[in-house]
Amino acid sequence: MLAVVLVSQLVGTVIAVVLALVRGETMPLSSDVPWSVAGGIAGGIGIVALYHGLATGRMGVVAPVTGVFAAAIPVVFGVLTEGLPSWLVVAGIGLAIVAVILVSRVDDDRTGPSGIGVALIAGVAIGSFGIAISQLSDGHTFGPLTIIRTTQAALIVGVIVIGRQAWRADRSWIPAMIGVGALDMAGNAAFILAVQAGSLAIAAILSSLYPVTTVILATLFLRERVTRAHAAGIALAAVAIVCIAAGAS
């Protein structure tokens, strides 16, 4: 687990540096540095907590709880700082939260700890990450992301060293881990650009619908069965996106 997180963060750091240079971004503003570091810490804690919760707790509890808190916290912050969006957007946000719960449901008959505590930590941390990166200055994306990724990589190294955790992974995993790092960085960059172009509440709730994509891809490529809850969640997600797009236009 730690190997995947560490390699993906290092890959994201390299990509962010290259894109910052290609894009010709100036150095991050002094006001962006603390927000970037805070975002890196929050994001690192969130990812590690989520992976730990999925590994040791019940997926049917950890996934939806993390998803809802990760979405709800930036939405509430966005409403408080930017004002309440139109009623159509509010309706879409409500439908999206229900969709996340339905799509994240997993048939899990395991006994033992539910993982609710770790899920709450993961959800709050990931939600806080969204708030932190929403405070970055317009026009600065990949420079702050370089700081965020470096902070997260340092955090993971600290966990490995202090906790004496095993971190080496099979070399056959390297291409997949590189892909994870590239896609994760692309998602973060898209989120920053979306927040700078519009509303934090809308960007947060739309990005929280990632489990829908996961279920669809698992169905197409892994031939996993779509449950009634998943199908209902996917349908609600589609309606939510239409409502948010119509209300925000």
Summarize the topology.
Elements: H1 2-23, H2 32-56, H3 59-82, H4 87-103, H5 116-134, H6 142-163, H7 174-197, H8 200-207, H9 210-221, H10 228-248
Summarize the structure.
With 249 residues, this protein is an all-alpha fold. It contains 10 helices and no strands. It is 78% helix and 0% strand.
Explain how this protein is built.
- By secondary structure, the chain is mainly α.
- The protein has one domain.
- 78% of the residues lie in helices and 0% in strands.
- Helix 4 packs parallel to helix 8.
- The longest helix has 25 residues, at 32-56.
- It is globular and about 40 Å long.
- The N and C termini lie far apart (41 Å).
- 45% of the residues are buried.
Give the overall form.
globular
Helix content: over 70%
Note the run of SSEs as H and E.
Answer: HHHHHHHHHH
| Class from helix and strand fractions | mainly alpha
**Biggest β-sheet strands, sense, barrel:** none
Given as residue ranges, the uncertain stretches (5+ residues, pLDDT < 50) are: none
- How far apart the termini lie comes to 41 Å
Number of strands: 0
Quote the beta fraction. Answer: under 5%
Residue-averaged pLDDT: 85
How many separate structural domains?
Answer: 1
Number of helices: 10
Rg to the nearest angstrom? 18 Å
